[in-house]
Amino acid sequence: MNKKAVVLLSGGLDSTTVLAQAKSEGYDLYALSFDYGQRHDAELDAARAIAGAMGVIEHKVVPMDLSGIGGSALTDASIDVPTTESDGIPVTYVPARNTVFLSIALGWAEVLEAQDIFIGVSAVDYSGYPDCRPEYIAAYERLANLATKMGVEGRHIRIRTPLINLTKAATIQLGDRLGVDYSLTVSCYQANTAGEACGECDSCRLRIKGFEEAGVTDPTRYQA
Predict the structure, then answer these.
(1) Is 10 a known ligand-binding residue?
(2) Assigned domain for 222 exists
(3) Which element (helix H / strand E) includes 210?
């Protein structure tokens, strides 16, 4: 029996690279996405396409409405997505999002008896979100092993972060080596219904810079 991994899959560049990395390590893949009240469904459509293309055994899309608490440009339509760089943590930060997502992933991992959870966070070339830092991941892994039956029984749960120390360019180069089709991915915070990127938001700027520095052709479809 192959080892199992739960992989958080947003439909974006980073999570797709992580899915490919887990596949290359021989895991049976169980992908988890969230319909959390984000601005558009394009990334979920991308996640479904990616899961199908990469041979995922099961792909769950879990509904939850984080727009109910708001506080982010990604879940509150009254807050504009910024198109210029700003100091501090940007308004595209969704309060406690990775903690919520990892908690659901942890529950599913217990059901599957999967000891590895993959998440595509990076602390390099990123927007400064606090729940993407190595110290957060280390703390969450400790919590996971304190709070679960698997952990108490000595089956250590690992939070895997293959991209944590990679630049966006290095991530793209890794994905290129692994055969990732980045044309399937949607990273834009305000993509249109066709999945075309704005080319101006923080996520788009990091993605454009990453492809340029990686020397890899950018297959992203941008709005006219």
Answers:
(1) yes
(2) no
(3) helix 202-214
Residue 68 φ then ψ, to 5°: -65, -30
What type of residue is 165?
N
Is 204 annotated as a binding-site member? yes
Q: How many domains does the chain have?
A: 1
17 is in an annotated binding site: yes
Q: What is the pLDDT of residues 164-200, one digit of tens each?
A: 999 999 999 999 999 999 999 999 999 998 999 999 9
List, for residues 11-55, the tens digit of each pLDDT value.
Answer: 999 999 999 999 999 999 999 999 998 988 899 999 999 999 999
Read off the tokens for 204: 């788009």
The CATH number given to whatever domain includes residue 31 is 3.40.50.620
Report the alpha-carbon distance of residue 59 to residue 53 in Å, rounded.
Answer: 12
The response to whether 15 counts as a known ligand-binding position is: yes
Question: Which residue range is the domain that position 103 belongs to?
Answer: 4-214
201 among annotated binding-site residues: yes
Are the CB atoms for 54 and 83 separated by under 8 Å?
Answer: no
